[in-house]
Amino acid sequence: MKKYNSEFKSMIVELYKTGRRVLELSREYGVSEVTIYKCIKQISPITSIDDADITLEEIKQLCEVLNVPRSTYYQLKHQTESKWKRENHQLLEQIKKIHFESSCRYGSIKVHRQLIKEGFSVSLKRVQR
Question: Distance between CA 121 and CA 127 in Å, rounded?
Answer without folding.
Answer: 11
